[in-house]
Task: structure prediction
Amino acid sequence: MNKIVEKENFSEKVVKIVVEAPLIAKARKPGNFVIVRVGEKGERIPLTIAGADVKKGTITMIVQKMGVSSQKLCALEAGDYVTDLVGPLGKPTEIHNVGTVLCCGGGVGVAPLLPIVEGYKKAGNKVITVLAARNKDLLILEDEMRKHSDEVIIMTDDGSYGKKGLITEGMEEVIQRENIDECITIGPAIMMKFCSLLTKKYEIPTMASLNSIMVDGTGMCGACRVTVDGKTKFTCVDGPEFDAHKIDFDEMMSRLGGYKSEEQDKMDHFHE
Amino acid sequence: MERSEEYIKNERKKEWRVELQKKTKAKDRMAIERVEMSEQDPNERIKSQRIEVNNGLSKEQAVLEATRCMDCVNPTCMEGCPVSINIPKFIKYIEKEEFGKAASVLKETSALPAVCGRVCPQEVQCEQKCFYVEKLNQPSVAIGHLERFAADWERESGEIAVPECAESNGVKVAVIGSGPSGLSFAGDMAKLGYDVTVFEALHEIGGVLKYGIPEFRLPNAVVDVEIDNLSKMGVKFVTNYIVGQTATLEDLKEEGYKAFYVGSGAGLPRFMNIPGENANGILSSNEYLTRVNLMGADSEDSDTPVLRGKNVVVVGGGNTAMDSVRTAKRLGAENAMIVYRRSEEEMPARVEEVHHAKQEGVEFLTLTNPIEYIADENGRVKQVKVQKMELGEPDASGRRRPIPMEGSEYTIDATVVVVAVGVSPNPLIPNSVEGLEVSKWGTIEVVKDKMQSSIPEVFAGGDIVRGGATVILAMGDGRKAAANMDTYLKEKYLSEKVEQ
Ligand SMILES: Cc1cc2nc3c(=O)[nH]c(=O)nc-3n(C[C@H](O)[C@H](O)[C@H](O)COP(=O)(O)OP(=O)(O)OC[C@H]3O[C@@H](n4cnc5c(N)ncnc54)[C@H](O)[C@@H]3O)c2cc1C
Ligand SMILES: Cc1cc2nc3c(=O)[nH]c(=O)nc-3n(C[C@H](O)[C@H](O)[C@H](O)COP(=O)(O)OP(=O)(O)OC[C@H]3O[C@@H](n4cnc5c(N)ncnc54)[C@H](O)[C@@H]3O)c2cc1C
Ligand code: FES
Result:
């Protein structure tokens, strides 16, 4: 049982939750995630550690309401407890001083991007961050990103904030303007696929952080398998970050829908 | 633990044993037919994942079956038991209707008799070595059923004796993993007075006993009683704690832990790496069983989903495959089928599980191997392409090697495929502890019989050392490790204390 010490609604769909977890706060590195479970009948869901405070012994998660489990978590308030929390999981991001880094985040993928942006900056890189959202209200963590980036470019689908257009348009503008040594992309699978296609064209080494379906998060079940460079990998222990140019995104997207109708049944049951 | 032949012989000469030996003639004992375990009706039991198949023996059945046992001068059955349970002694206590004492005999050597009575492959262990089989070519004494009877009797009587523990010696030891190996180690160390903490990565204690073996074979309540008992003995349990990730072994040393027992299991699923294997609907037995057994996905109020299908194919022939295919039946599959590349004779599963699976309407397609999966336009598996096999010369395992038959390919319809072709050692500890010697298969190297690794304060056992074995072997390792760690720690810490 881990106590929620703070909760903030970023938007109708996105919530920030700060939870007591002193050991995880100490051990975590950028790129790590945790598995959270709410209630005795709860599902185990993976969430990135968006930040940590070692002194207070807390970690921060930013959660988007999707199905039953994320909604149950978002319905908790400060003072409530999550039933189970385990981590840190996954391989941390390999952060080096490479020069200029392009960090691209879409939707709730902006949350896991934050510690990575922080890390790259700390390592002495020039960090250019491109954030994308459907509209202004869905954009999160802009101020925090500005704090740790040399430049932030915002793209919205409807033009309600920043520039109108897709994330790849913002990226391409930067790539044509200056030399980019490394790129990282986190967001919906389809977005990562197109980011990856773009950087491949310009031969920029690119990492993508995958949000596969998981159960245990420790390599025990294989629910999270992806094909990278023609080989099967487990996202939870071999990733979650992989060389984007080698990921089979089409298979990955298909696998994300592997439990779609069963998840929908759970939602219908939840609302009854 | 290992007792001398001399001791066993003397035990047999005790007055109460001699009395029983004289009470019934050998001929009359041999005339009794082996007991039949009563079972839930196959059509009823497949309606729920949680109905135990075997009902257990009645008191009368147990006493009669115990009477069959000849109390042999040379009890060969004990040779077949990996932990050398004093089999005749516990069985004779059942004949004498002193069931509590029978249970105590079991507990001298087995930490989890109620579990072993249900899941041990007795037919290739103790029962295979029974006098009836060896000398008379008749069905063995039902040692497994009797073991279960004695252990259940004790539990249900509410008279479980919490073992006496030595006075606390204040030395902290950590157990990594809460499977049968870790639990038996923890029990023995608590008895010896150590301050024991068990760290478990999952949110439940029990390892495979909870997330793998289904409740229709091993009810959680049976396992929970054992865990409760350990708690009463002062063992502490910490769930959601991955040693090597949440904190390292070094961190634990700083917290004062003096020695470690690694019982982290062989939980990594293997796949076959054949085309189409990553299609939706194809999953490892670990994923399938974990969703149902650990997460309760068979019930509607669980938030965890599980895939159901009319046609379910399970690949493999071990206990894991049987558990998966029978789970599929219980989740409503009309056709649940085992696809196994060798013949039924080579199947590593317990004979009883194969028998129960057949009763429940599971189909067996042996000498057949999948070679490709075909998915529909949404990426969901719809067919399995299989190939027929024939058996050739024996391989390293002593079983005849399956050889593909050219041109024998055909397809089977299936929308759920469960792959149960084996597991690999859990790499978390081998990868995170520097200086730990690991074999090329990823198992931890230990000094045989001592269970001590290349790092003196780290002991290991169970599947992480054996690479996939049985509950009883995992448990036996835990007990051996406890005895040897005790010697190690006494020399290192406790003798000094006495001198001071
Ligand atoms: C390593 C990792 C880190 C993650 N970090 C975060 C994070 O920081 N914040 C956050 O909000 N989410 C994160 N996710 C995604 C999050 O785990 C899922 O959104 C969550 O499991 C959905 O559960 P649910 O029961 O609410 O929805 P479900 O009912 O499971 O799903 C609802 C719908 O979403 C689809 N879906 C299911 N799982 C996923 C998934 N993993 N990704 C995308 N769509 C999915 C389903 O097909 C379904 O249509 C992360 C995932 C991974 C693997
Ligand atoms: C489905 C199935 C059916 C089976 N049926 C039978 C049967 O009928 N009869 C039989 O004798 N055997 C059977 N077996 C085999 C038997 O269950 C195993 O041999 C036995 O459980 C091994 O015990 P263990 O304690 O070594 O490991 P496990 O039971 O695997 O337990 C290991 C535990 O360690 C935890 N862990 C791993 N790494 C860490 C870490 N770094 N930190 C903290 N915790 C960690 C894991 O989460 C797990 O809970 C079956 C196995 C399966 C999967
Ligand atoms: S989530 Fe189970 S193996 Fe990755």
User: Anything to note?
Assistant: Chain A touches chain B at residues 23-24, 27, 37, 39, 41-44, 68-69, 72, 83-89, 215-216, 218-223, 225-227, 232, 237, 251, 254-255, 257-259, 262-263, 265-266, 269 (CB under 8 Å).
